[in-house]
Amino acid sequence: MKWRVLLELAEANGDVETRELATGQRPSSAISPEAIGLTLAEGKSVLAAMQTRLIQAQAGEYCDDRRICSHCGSCRVIKDWRARRLTTLFGVVQIEAPRFNPCRCGLASRQIVSPLGEIMPDRCTPEYERILVKMGSLAAYGRAAALMAEFLPLGEAPAIETARRRTLQVGAKLEQQSLAVKPYGGHVKSIRSYQLRSFEVMLACASNDRGEQQLFSSVPVEADRQRQQLNAVLRDLGATPATPVTVLSDGADGPRFTG
Ligand SMILES: [Zn+2]
């Protein structure tokens, strides 16, 4: 039997283009337990080819779109082309990226437009970065990179130093974010006529059987988000919907969420 894997790309204007991703064949005499269906290598190659074609097509469509001036509708003049590489979980994709001069009407943006810089601000996709960092946090960097390359058509396996650096960068970013969390505070004036007013803050601590703890708090104006907040905290501590939860409360009304 012979086969072809095709990718059909349908643009918004109705144009449809079909591109061949892979072909293969196995004479019936060659089918064996080892050679039935797609092998890992064949699967990786189909994924890599699909990723390349898809990204090139999406990039092309986006550039065509951005070339049109949003004010007068004319086509911007191409200033130059630059080679870009986007590292993804399914391979490193090379793209020729155009840059456009500002439109002659001068009414829309007067900056040079670099469309692919808008949709690919980094050299790798956020998903690639996320998985690389996740793997790097679970296993030794060299092992994490080798495991990823085993199953994914990375093309160029991430260098050990890259995985380590990215894990540290993401860790530093998270640390900064946690320090930058805006503290909630309030000042309550003790004026006799206003003594019936109250200032309410919910402060809680959740912990799991391993002794890991998370402190969290909210104010009434955020009451609609308290349930999401609690869910996120419990999830971070490893709880699933089936995990029994014991709530110890100071007896005050609330919290407002349930379940
Ligand atoms: Zn214009």
Describe the 3D structure:
This protein is α+β, with helices and mostly antiparallel strands and 259 residues long. The chain folds into two domains: 2-124, no CATH class; 182-259, no CATH class. It has helices at residues 40-67, 115-119, 126-138, 141-151, 160-180, 226-236, and strands at residues 2-10, 16-25, 78-88, 91-100, 202-207, 213-218. Strands 1-2 form a two-stranded antiparallel ribbon. The site of zinc ion (ZN) has 8 residues, from loops.
Topology:
Elements: E1 2-10, E2 16-25, H1 40-67, E3 78-88, E4 91-100, H2 115-119, H3 126-138, H4 141-151, H5 160-180, E5 202-207, E6 213-218, H6 226-236
Antiparallel strand pairs: 1-2, 3-4, 5-6
Helix pairs in contact: 3-4, 3-5, 4-5
The structure holds zinc ion (ZN).
Question: Helix/strand/pairing class, anyone?
Answer: alpha+beta
Order of helices and strands: EEHEEHHHHEEH
Shape: extended
> What integer value in Å does the Rg equal?
27 Å
Percent strand equals 15-25%
User: Which ions and ligands are bound to the chains?
Assistant: zinc ion
- Average per-residue pLDDT, rounded, comes to 83
Number of strands: 6
Low-confidence stretches at least 5 residues in length (pLDDT < 50)? none
Helicity, in percent? 25-40%
Distance between the termini: 55 Å
Count of distinct structural domains:
2
User: Number of DSSP helices?
Assistant: 6
Order of strands, widest sheet: 1-2
Main sheet characteristics:
2 strands, antiparallel
